[in-house]
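Hello Y.,

Per our agreement to keep a running log of every chain we model this quarter, I'm adding this entry. I've kept the format consistent with earlier entries: sequence first, then predicted structure.
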Amino acid sequence: MYLCDLKNFNDMDKTGTAGNKGPGIRSDVWVAVSPVRGGGLQINIDSKVKALFGRQIRALVEEMLHFFEIEHAQVVIEDAGAVDFVLAARLEGAIKQVIQTDKEFLLPLLEENTTASGKDDFRFSRLYLPGNSPKLMLNAGVHKPNGLILDMEDAVAPAKKTEARFLVRNALRSLHFYAAERMVRINQGKRGLEDLEYVIPHFANMILIPKCEEVEDVLRVAGKSKQLLEQNNLDHPVWFMPIVESAKGVMNAYQIAGADPHVAAMAIGLEDYTADLGTRRTNEGTESFFARSMVVNAARAAGIQPIDSVFSDVSDMQALAENVKRSKALGFDGMGCIHPRQISIVHENFAPDAAEIEKAKKIFIAFKEAEAKGLGVVSLGSKMIDPPVVKRAQTTITLAINTGRLNESWENDDNMEVASPSTL
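Predicted structure for the entry above:
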């Protein structure tokens, strides 16, 4: 029996709409679905690429209408170059405004979008993408950020948040991330927990938890995520990045950082934090020095990555570079980006410089020589080398290799002389 046989429509006089249209809209589509009492499926397609892709668009629309058991409806498609996963998301969003169903229309899942990420993966950069704007998603990965964030919170207008869920879900399955970590920033509170139903079963690597102020904010998300993984017979790791954005959150930073074993990083959001303080955010950052230091220390004490806030002036690359250097000096491991042009600046200035690399190489070689001789405590010159120093040197070398600043076979190529290790 077809759901459109009147009784299962929410309202026979209602039209469901989703998507965007008008001047300046690209890679998106606007869809309207109206129930009718008879006459079959009436599909009107307006697209600049109709001559090339009209049949493909119609076939997908018909497939979805039959999937949702809709036999009689008027459907209007105003296409601005949407790819299949965008069209499918918009159509499903419109359909679910006029019928009651728990069914999901899922396009094939890209194999590359099932890869897991590690808790300690490098996260120099994370690029925010509005969760309801497909044109900004489609080629974002080519800019090589460490992570791509599909943002369901501040970047989505309240009236569009429900339809954004379908787009984010489909993007997790079909978008080419180009090896970037697949991140999603959910909404706050109950809406955020509901967002997880569209995210966790579709292999998101990391969930960004906004406006965290206490441990319970993390535990609720972690508990719901675990439940969804079990319900869907999945066991891939899902990491969490709570974002501290208030004075209360800063004061509870250590407890938040250690709230759950899957918390891999903690970020600070300075726009909301400075608003909470009643002060103005500056490039110098004196007004946020305390908060940023608290987040770094809390994260380090909990054994996770401290991640700095975004830099909001996308036109001033010099100011961004200075901000990244200050961020690195404070102890942060990365920061957010709101424009692709910021990514290379963030990577360049977070990466170890020549002096840091040389020092790390000397420490690493001295430690290896000492280890080969069975020495427990070693020195390099007049300075003792203890395990934390060695670990930091190893991290620096790995970063240098990953950023192309050091050859992977540097130990074989390098004939540098180092001080002989000696027992202290």
